[in-house]
Amino acid sequence: MTQPATVRRAFDPQPPLTPDHLRTALSLAASGVPVLPLRRGKVPFGNCPSCVGNACGGRPNMKTPGPCHCPGICHAWAAATTDPDIIASPAWAAAWRRAVCVGYHPGGAGLTVVDLDDADAVTWARKNLPGTRTVATTRGEHWIYRGTMASRNAVRPGVDIKSAMAYARYLGPGTGPLADLPDAIRARAATKPPTAPAVAPAAVAPAGNEACPHRTPAYLERGIAMAVDRIYEARAQVHATVYGVFLAVLSRHGRCDCLTDAHVAQLFAAAQSKGETARHCADAWTNARTRLGL
């Protein structure tokens, strides 16, 4: 894929990220990189009341970047834009004042970010992937390649792929030239991802032939929907909110066999939409089960 020169320049050596996130965002947007502000926890701002839980229907198929019909910053990665009038608009001003960093939509810029979350993941990448533009993160590195693909979390321990329909933090231009997206990464994303951990069998089965009340659709489905909405609506302390929701769900439904992998997957998907990794979700789920003795 031929990359526009303006996008390449966004990742050419330049002054490091400044505290002025709006100025950084406008500079990236001028280079063809769709941007959005990220709040505490390095996650997107929550949807407006009309868009909570995607009630408005979201962006058409959620396949293209850009703002939805409301003026606020809704739908996470899909809010990313290169329009300077939107980025500097009064509707976005409050978010920029609260932002802790600038996010961008890699796929919208024709890029893929291989997010290496720890030293082991970095070692794996150095042995198995071609060198490319590298940006240091708090615990590991971002390897940025030229080209787009489907995003996927946890393609191997400590490795996430962020490209189409995903966001990444902008942490500076990094070092090294951009390389083409290798087939090794596309192959990783093509493999089946690990499934959400299944709930253990019931510790105490319902007495006699009495049906478990949690199986009542109006009860169980509403409970899962409320749990998902609570995660989506988290404005701060996302890690704590996710753990608290998992704990609440398991305390109510974890001692019988009513929960299915599909229910757990809904909870994990909501958490990952707020910036949690698959590994963090699995850890929070395991910790909640351990605390409840499940």
- Range of helix content: 25-40%
Low-confidence stretches: 13-19, 193-211
Taking all residues together, what is the mean pLDDT? 79
Number of helices: 10
Radius of gyration: 20 Å
The general outline is: globular
Number of strands: 10
Kindly report the oligomeric state of this protein.
single chain
Tell me the strand percentage band.
Answer: 5-15%
Distance between the termini: 50 Å
Q: Could you state the order of secondary-structure elements as H and E? A: HHEEHHEEHEEEEEEHHHHH
In this structure, how is the largest beta sheet organized?
A: 6 strands, mixed
Provide an overview of this structure.
With 294 residues, the chain is of the alpha+beta class. Helices cover 36% and strands 14% of the residues. It has 10 helices and 10 strands. The protein has helices at residues 5-10, 21-30, 84-87, 90-98, 119-128, 183-190, 217-232, 238-253, 261-273, 278-292; strands at 35-39, 43-44, 101-104, 111-116, 133-136, 141-146, 152-156, 159-162, 168-169, 179-180. Strands 4, 5, 6, 7, 8 and 10 form a 6-stranded mixed β-sheet that branches. A 4-stranded antiparallel β-sheet has the order 2-1-3-9. Helix 7 packs antiparallel against helix 8 and helix 7 runs parallel beside helix 9.
Break the fold down into its secondary structure elements and pairings.
Elements: H1 5-10, H2 21-30, E1 35-39, E2 43-44, H3 84-87, H4 90-98, E3 101-104, E4 111-116, H5 119-128, E5 133-136, E6 141-146, E7 152-156, E8 159-162, E9 168-169, E10 179-180, H6 183-190, H7 217-232, H8 238-253, H9 261-273, H10 278-292
Parallel strand pairs: 6-10
Antiparallel strand pairs: 1-2, 1-3, 3-9, 4-6, 4-8, 5-6, 7-8
Helix pairs in contact: 7-8, 7-9, 8-10
